[in-house]
UniProtKB/TrEMBL annotation:
UDP-N-acetyl-alpha-D-muramoyl-L-alanyl-D-glutamate binds at residues 31, 154-155, 181, 187, 189. It comes from Mucilaginibacter corticis. HAMAP family: MurE. Pfam families: Mur_ligase (PF01225), Mur_ligase_C (PF02875), Mur_ligase_M (PF08245). ATP binds at residues 112-118. Keywords: ATP-binding, Cell cycle, Cell division, Cell shape, Cell wall biogenesis/degradation, Cytoplasm, Ligase, Magnesium, Nucleotide-binding, Peptidoglycan synthesis. This is UDP-N-acetylmuramoyl-L-alanyl-D-glutamate--2,6-diaminopimelate ligase. Meso-2,6-diaminopimelate binds at residues 379, 403-406, 456, 460.
Length: 486
């Protein structure tokens, strides 16, 4: 049982109306989810203003309201708290409502444009393999020590987030590894959490639709490190040109990892093949199942974090060498006729370039590389021509297609991508709106030994068109096609 006064700890509010210390049944920020006894937090959003729903929340049973501006008429029987920023307040009260679960386990956050899911998932798999009880919050799925809970966001909203952390604590988890998206930082979804450490992977072009400028995007990532406590670690990829920036104002212990520069944790790629990576880490040579030089960074980040969490070096390297990471990341299958298919979640220009250059470095010689790629609707439009350009530059043939057009016209998204196709490559590019047909065409074009890359959807099991998520799975489509190949 929680009273309003219990959940206001650490909340800076400027005004309080109605002094009754009421019992609170739930913390809610969506009026449609209000139940009797709720504390309703009115948040200004990108589409609407939660303040416009205060009346509705009260009608449906809210007994207390947190807001930035008091509504014209305030109900006497309801407590009103004025705050400077409701989104910040939401994080704090959500954490208090669940008794600050983040402080009861070791919470490690991973941020960066690419690699968050891979690093968080590897850490989760590694620590479980070493015998710890763990939780995972990721784009692919959330997990409470093996129990899968579907995920809708890379980083959940503050209420869901603290609820999941609470469940982890109740299940006896020692660690939680979570992705921290730039949206989550900007929207204060992680406010009120206590992190044992933060990891930065890299920063490249994405989400400029939301953040508007690269500077703002950078600031959002950096704010995560600025907020870490002096007891936490801040681990950065010092090879990334913004790696140092992340550490500029943090109070946490500053640590770095790198393949090229001087760093606290240094790695070197000795072999890079379809079968895996041979790395030298801390003077040990170890084979890993993960493929691609970008995964050398991810593995190094995981190793460094494990060291900072006081784990045994030999145990960590032995366990890490067996792991294969998150679903739908450089997942490859070979058809009976020896065509190679790779399903990957590359959905930024940098990730597309990384995955294609990895393929380029480990291919044997004359095989064709055929890339099937689309760009998401209602997402950063400026990355569309760039992703198409990169795909064309690094592939022999490219099929431009759909990847979650959402509310947009899929043909228009493809037209935006076509703007980036270099003139010399026009004859090697086809546009096929239907993704299934695009995959079929790639398979028909492929000769034995050729490599097909299906980029952008990775683990996703749907194609989102006009608000409806239709079942669609790149891997399933690929395997179906491969079955039919002789
Ligand atoms: C652009 C964006 O990030 N939007 C997120 C944001 O919603 P919003 O600001 O648009 O909310 P809004 O619709 O304007 O509503 C404002 C407020 O009014 C309330 N409301 C609204 C209607 C109503 O009837 N009653 C009511 O009380 C809403 O609950 C909300 O509190 O806050 C919501 C609650 O936390 C999120 O669910 C929502 O995610 C949307 C669905 C989304 O697609 N987000 C993506 C872009 C996202 O967050 N992605 C990142 C990962 C990106 C990456 O890959 O790196 C992620 O962490 O998942
Ligand atoms: N360290 C890395 N550097 C660059 N590219 C990477 C790295 N790790 C993974 N990638 C590429 O980015 C894709 C997405 O990787 P992952 O899912 O781990 O990133 P993410 O940061 O979680 O993405 P999201 O923002 O969508 O949650 C992979 O499929 C791969 O192509
Ligand atoms: N989580 C990210 C990646 C989505 C990847 C791609 N499949 C798309 O739909 O654009 C987002 O929501 O922007
Ligand atoms: Mg992710």
């Amino acid at each position: 049982m929680k009273y309003l006064s219990d959940i206001l700890t650490g909340l800076p509010f400027t005004e309080l109306q109605g002094a009754a210390d009421v019992e609170i049944s739930a913390v809610v920020f969506d009026s449609r989810k209000v139940v009797p006894g709720s504390l309703f937090v009115a948040v200004k959003g990108t589409q609407v203003d939660g303040h416009d729903y205060i009346e509705k929340a009260i009608q449906d049973g809210a007994v207390a309201v947190i807001c930035e501006e008091l509504p014209g008429r305030t109900a006497n029987e309801v407590d009103f708290l004025m705050v400077a920023n409701s989104a910040v307040a939401l994080g704090i009260v959500a954490a208090n409502f669940y008794d600050n679960p983040s402080a009861k386990l070791k919470l490690v956050g991973v941020t960066g444009t690419n690699g968050k899911t891979t690093i968080a998932t590897l850490l989760y798999q590694l620590f479980r393999d070493m015998g710890y009880k763990c939780g995972l919050l990721s784009t692919v799925e959330n997990q409470v020590n093996g129990k899968v809970i579907p995920s809708t966001h890379t980083t959940p909203d503050p209420v869901e987030l603290n609820k999941l952390l609470d469940e982890m604590v109740n299940q006896g988890c020692d660690y939680c590894f979570m992705e921290v998206s730039s949206h989550a930082v900007a929207q204060h979804r992680i406010e009120g959490l206590r992190f044992a450490g933060g990891i930065f992977s890299n920063l490249t072009h994405d989400h400029l639709d939301y953040h508007k400028t690269f500077e703002n995007y950078l600031k959002a990532k950096k704010a995560f490190f600025d907020g870490l406590s002096k007891n936490a670690f801040a681990l950065t990829n010092i090879d990334d040109k913004n790696g140092n920036v992340m550490l500029q104002n943090t109070k946490a212990h500053k640590k770095s990892y790198a393949l090229k520069s001087m760093a606290d944790y240094k790695g070197k790629i000795l072999e890079n093949q379809f079968g895996g990576l041979l790395l030298r880490i801390d003077n040990e040579e170890v084979w890993f199942k993960m493929v691609g030089s970008f995964n050398a960074y991810n593995l190094l980040a995981v190793y460094a974090a494990a060291m900072l969490l006081d784990q045994d070096k030999a145990k960590v390297l032995t366990s890490l060498s067996k792991l294969s990471g998150a679903e739908g990341r450089f997942d490859y299958v070979v058809a009976p006729n020896k065509v190679i298919g790779i399903v990957d979640y590359a959905h930024t220009p940098d990730a597309v370039q990384n995955v294609l250059s990895t393929i380029h470095n480990i291919r044997k010689g004359n095989e064709q590389v055929i890339t099937v790629i689309g760009c998401g609707g209602d997402r950063d439009k400026t990355k569309r021509p760039v992703m198409a350009k990169v795909a064309c530059e690094w592939s022999d043939k490219v099929i431009l297609t759909s990847d979650n057009p959402r509310s947009e016209d899929p043909l228009q998204i493809i037209r935006d991508m076509e703007e980036g196709v270099p003139v010399m490559k026009k004859f090697n590019v086809a546009s096929i709106v239907d993704r299934r047909e695009a995959i079929q065409t790639a398979c028909k074009l492929a000769q034995p030994g050729d490599i097909i890359l299906l980029a952008g959807k990775g683990h996703e099991k749907y194609q989102e068109i006009k608000g409806v998520k239709n079942h669609f799975d790149d891997k399933e489509e690929l395997l179906n096609q491969f079955k039919q190949m002789g």
